[in-house]
């Protein structure tokens, strides 16, 4: 007689009920696994520094927008962009401090590797040297993303005129 638990949609991850994770039709689908596998943190062939740069650029670029739209300086056009710049810079700095603190408490000097609960985590991020490179990349990429977004917002009219001229000719 078949086990009635085999018909359930939500099962323990890898059949182990003690992992603290449930395999649902969404979290265990091939699409989800492929999508997560293409994120920079899990993509194969990247160094920790490049992973941090890519993740930092994305976070820095998108942190400035909500502060400009919803921040306390939203009614002042000239100050809104500058306030968003400062807030995004501080958020990237706080994120970098958090990543550094995580690396300090997770990777001991005498222990060169740290077993990760996630098997997809690259081996280069399981030691203090790789995590330090990742954190440095995040900081540089995050600051670059913030300044790029600020530059584009401050020069939007000029860039718009350039592209309109190229398209309309």
Describe the secondary structure blueprint for this structure.
Blueprint: E1 11-12, E2 22-23, H1 30-37, H2 48-70, H3 77-106, H4 128-154, H5 156-168
Antiparallel strand pairs: 1-2
Helix pairs in contact: 2-3, 2-4, 3-4
Poorly predicted ranges: none
- Tell me the structural class: mainly alpha
Q: Could you give the order of strands across the largest sheet?
A: 1-2
Biggest sheet features = 2 strands, antiparallel
Mean pLDDT: 85
Instruction: Please tally the β strands and state the result.
Output: 2
Q: For the terminal residues, how far apart are their CA atoms?
A: 75 Å
Helix coverage percent = 55-70%
Highlighted features:
169 residues; mainly alpha; two-stranded antiparallel ribbon; extended
Descriptive account of the structure:
There is one protein chain. By secondary structure, the chain is mainly α. Helix content is 60%, strand content 2%. It has five helices and two strands. The chain has helices spanning 30-37, 48-70, 77-106, 128-154, 156-168; strands at 11-12, 22-23. The chain has a two-stranded antiparallel ribbon. The chain is extended and about 70 Å long. The model has no long low-confidence stretch (mean pLDDT 85).
Quick synopsis:
With 169 residues, the chain is mostly helical.
